[in-house]
Each structure stands twice: as C-alpha cells, then as structure tokens.
Amino acid sequence: MTTTASPRGEEHELALLLGGRCRRCAERIPGGTALRGRPCPRCSEATLPSPEDREVLHQLSTQRATVRLSVAVVGVAAAALVASWVPLLTSFLLVAALVWLRVTLVTPALQLLSLQRKLVARWTLRLAAGCFVALSVLMLELLTLVPGLGALAKVALSAGQVAVAGLFARRYLAWQTGREAQGVPVAWWEMGLLVAWMLLLLAFTTASVLLVVYVLQSLGFVKEFLVMPVGG
C-alpha cells in the first residue's frame, strides 16, 4: 500500500480495491487489475505492486465472505422456525438466502477477477447453485411428509444447506482469486465442468418438479381424508 498512508488511510484504500475501484481516483478498474498488481488505467496509480499486498487483499476478501455467510446461516435458521411448518416456504427461504449470498458474497469477489475468469466463475457458481437448490427442494419437501419432527428437521437442514452452499462459494472464489493473484490462466477442464453442472441441473430440476407435484397431491389427499365424515 501507500508507504505514507496512515492505518485509516490504508483501510480506506483496501476498501476501495475490494469494491473494484482505484485506491487513488476511486474510479472503477477492470477485473483482475488489483490482484495482478497492474496500474489503474485512468490515473496510472499502482494498485498493489507487491505480492504481500495482493495476498492481504485476497485474505480480506475471504474474511468478508466468511462474515456474510455467518449472517446468512443465522438468518435462515431463525426464519425457518416459522417457515418450516408451511410446504415450499422453506425452499423459497433457501432461494432468498442464496440470492443474498450472491449479492453480498459472490458479486464483490467477481469484481476482483479478470473477464475470462469472471465469466467461468460466475457460470460455475450459477449452475452449481441451481443444482443445489433443486437437490435441496428434494430433501426439504420430503420432510414435509413427516409430521412434527419433519418441520424441526427442516430448520436444521435449511441452515446447514446455506452453510454448505456458502462455504463452497467462498472456497471456490478464494481459490479463483488466489489463482488470479498468481497469474494462473483458466484451465480447460473448468470449461468442461460447466457442461457437467448443466447436466446435473437438468436431472435435479426434473426430480424436484416431480417431487413437488407428489407432495402437493399427497397433502391434498390428507386434507380430504381428514374432512371425510366418520362412517362414510
């Protein structure tokens, strides 16, 4: 960082770089500029010239993701105490939590990546999230058919699912930002992985739709059974 900057000034500069902006002119800088130590294209100010500074930015990005993930897990666990008693509501809550993680955890990290790596990382996480949501719906809505304990199990399961999804995204993005800082190009197998995620998404989505239809039909049959007069 700037050798003459105060600790507060260094924090401000790092906050700008984490937000994808130049630490001097505060203008947007292309993805990968800071982690590669390249100068700002507008004012020519050096972003992070030393490997040590780039490692600090990488660590701060990971730490910020950890804090935001913890907030999401606690929030989902609290909301699921109510939502778990209503069919499909916990699944919608899970989707909302993943959207929040995307905005607060994924998007800021993607700003640090170069264009090609950003595209690969974005679509990898999108397809992985789609597979995760479809698989989560399968697990959560099966518990809807279990009276009593099923709702309580959905609370723990939904919080755990958000934690797993967030940890995957955090570790994946930390891996990608680390490779960006080292100047490692995108590997060919990362492209092939996108195809695998697409096939998994198709399979899980089909299974989830069939299960939701089955759950709704089952709940309808249960309701009709409960209102049926005794003795015909």
Provide tags for this entry.
0% strand; elongated; 232 residues; mainly alpha; membrane; transmembrane helix; single chain
Beta strand count: 0
Low-confidence stretches: none
**First and last CA, distance:** 81 Å
Helix-strand sequence: HHHHHH
**Number of alpha- plus pi-helical segments:** 6
Describe the main β-sheet briefly: none
Mean pLDDT: 78
Total individual domains: 2
**Helicity, in percent?**
over 70%
Oligomer: single chain
The dominant shape is elongated
Describe the structure.
The chain is elongated. Helices cover 74% and strands 0% of the residues. It is built from 6 helices and no strands. It has 232 residues and is mostly helical. Helix 3 runs parallel beside helix 5 (149-182), helix 4 (115-144) packs antiparallel against helix 5 and helix 4 packs parallel to helix 6 (188-227). It has 2 domains: 1-49, no CATH class; 51-227, no CATH class.
Which secondary structure elements does this structure contain, and how are they paired or packed?
Blueprint: H1 7-18, H2 51-83, H3 89-110, H4 115-144, H5 149-182, H6 188-227
Helix pairs in contact: 2-3, 2-5, 3-4, 3-5, 4-5, 4-6
Keywords: Membrane, Transmembrane, Transmembrane helix
Transmembrane segments: 67-86, 92-113, 125-146, 194-216
Summarize the structure.
This protein has 232 residues and is mainly α. The protein is built from 6 helices and no strands. It has 2 domains: 1-49, no CATH class; 51-227, no CATH class.
